[in-house]
Design a protein that fits this description.
- The chain has 137 residues and is an all-alpha fold.
- Helix content is 65%, strand content 0%.
- The protein is built from six helices and no strands.
- Helix 3 runs parallel beside helix 4.
- The N and C termini lie far apart (48 Å).
Length: 137
C-alpha cells in the first residue's frame, strides 16, 4: 500500500468516525430532550432546542428544582442578558448538583452555555442515576 493510499484510508476512517459521532449526538439529543420535557411537563417550561435552551440556565434551574422537589437555593438572574449572567446561572445549577451529590465530570458552565450537545446529553445519564424520581424513556 502506498503512502497516498494509507493517507486516503486514514481520512476515510476519520470521516466515518465523525459521522458516527454526529449520529450518536442526534439520538442522545432527541432522547434527552424527551426526558427533560417529560420532567418539565408540570411546569411552564418546555425545551425545544437543547443546544440553546439551557444556555441561560433558566430551564436548567426549572429542571433541577422539579427533579429534586425543592428550590435550588440561590438567586438566579431571571432575565439574563449578558454572557456573565448566563454563565452564573448555569454555575448555580452546577453548585446545586454538587450539593445534591451529583458529580459532573468533564463538563462546566461554559459547555452548557455554549450548547455543547455531546456533553449536555451525556450529563442526563448522571442526573437520571443520581435522582431517584426521574422519568426516563
Amino acid at each position: 500500500m502506498s503512502q497516498d493510499d494509507a493517507h486516503a484510508q486514514e481520512e476515510d476512517l476519520i470521516a466515518q468516525r465523525i459521522a458516527e459521532d454526529q449520529g450518536w449526538v442526534r439520538v442522545q439529543t432527541r432522547t434527552f430532550t424527551r426526558w427533560v420535557n417529560e420532567n418539565l411537563k408540570t411546569t411552564e417550561h418546555k425545551v425545544e432546542s437543547m443546544d440553546n435552551d439551557f444556555g441561560d440556565g433558566l430551564k436548567l434551574v426549572a429542571l433541577l428544582q422539579q427533579l429534586a422537589g425543592k428550590p435550588i437555593g440561590a438567586r438566579v438572574t431571571k432575565k439574563p442578558r449578558i454572557r456573565a449572567q448566563k454563565l452564573e446561572n448555569v454555575k448555580i445549577c452546577f453548585d446545586f448538583m454538587n450539593r445534591e451529590g451529583i458529580e459532573m465530570v468533564n463538563i462546566d458552565n461554559q459547555d452548557v452555555s455554549d450548547g455543547n450537545m455531546k456533553l449536555i446529553s451525556g450529563y442526563g445519564v448522571a442526573l437520571d442515576s443520581s435522582l431517584p424520581d426521574c422519568y426516563w424513556f
